[in-house]
Amino acid sequence: MTDPIADYLTRLRNAIKAGHRVVEIPASNLKKEITKILFEQGYILNYKFVESENPAGTIKVALKYDPVDRVNAIKGLQRASRPGLRQYCGYKSMPRVLKEDHNMSRIGKAPIEIPAGVTVTVGKDNLVTVKGPKGELSQAVNPDFEIKVEDGHIHLLRPTDDREHRAQHGLYRSLVHNMVVGVSTGYRKEMDRASATGQVLELSLGYSHAIYIKLPQEIKVEAKSERNKNPLIILESDDKQLLGQVCAKIRSLRKPEPYKGKGIKFVGEVIRRKSGKTAGAK
């Protein structure tokens, strides 16, 4: 059944023509709501939702007739709308469904709190500079956006509701927020199967040779080694993008495989394991 409304109306129409007192209709959420409306408006005598073999159950509808002339309360059934009727238009001319106060991005409209010890300045061409205990970061923001720093908070306001501005609103807010968090508390990643000497990582990944990676000066590295455990490195930086890019590069040298879980992985990362072939299976 592809059109539940047509099925519902057809069953009612046929029952009325046959003079039936009660009609049973396969139920659905839409049909139940229509039945409630018909009962509230006085077009049917009563109804009952009954469990049956149909997963949604069955609706028993008691039809309403005039006690004198035996005429049904429903004089006629006609559907005003038709299924599959489409109107094509550009995305800019489509009306918005949300209320006017919900037009803004939920992320973009959220203010960014400035912690103690952090200063934020907005320079020429919307260049946002954030200074804090962990360092200094800058991010260029689209000049169309207005950036306000007041009462210990940062507010990003977009000029229009165009598609481009709506897409960039939450993005720029997240980038500025990441800078504020980075210069105040910093970011930290822990990875195993590696050792470090200064800014140089030495990776023993099961190849015929060791792999060396020189880390940027913006990233601080600390190596830990415990007995009967894989070597552990701790990477810290105020730049979330740079730290994530470096960690992704290190992990790509030997990603964890799903059978034995060997490879470089983050501490706490869960690897979905697969069962290997069983020897002698028939």
Strand line-up across the major sheet: 1-3-2
- Radius of gyration equals 33 Å
Mean of all residue-level pLDDT scores:
85
Share in β-strands: 25-35%
Low-pLDDT windows of residues: none
Strands, total number: 15
Oligomer: single chain
Overall geometric form: elongated
End-to-end separation: 45 Å
Protein model, in words:
The structure is a single chain. This protein has 282 residues and is an alpha+beta fold. The protein has helices at 4-18, 29-40, 163-184, 240-252, and strands at 22-26, 44-50, 58-63, 112-113, 119-122, 127-132, 135-140, 146-150, 153-157, 187-192, 195-197, 200-203, 211-214, 220-224, 232-237. It has a three-stranded antiparallel beta sheet with strand order 1-3-2, covered by helices on one side. β6 (127-132) and β7 (135-140) form a beta hairpin. The two termini are 45 Å apart.
Could you give the topology of this structure?
Layout: H1 4-18, E1 22-26, H2 29-40, E2 44-50, E3 58-63, E4 112-113, E5 119-122, E6 127-132, E7 135-140, E8 146-150, E9 153-157, H3 163-184, E10 187-192, E11 195-197, E12 200-203, E13 211-214, E14 220-224, E15 232-237, H4 240-252
Antiparallel strand pairs: 1-3, 2-3, 4-9, 5-6, 6-7, 8-9, 10-15, 11-12, 12-13, 14-15
Quick synopsis:
With 282 residues, the protein is α+β, with helices and mostly antiparallel strands. The protein has helices at 4-18, 29-40, 163-184, 240-252, and strands at residues 22-26, 44-50, 58-63, 112-113, 119-122, 127-132, 135-140, 146-150, 153-157, 187-192, 195-197, 200-203, 211-214, 220-224, 232-237.
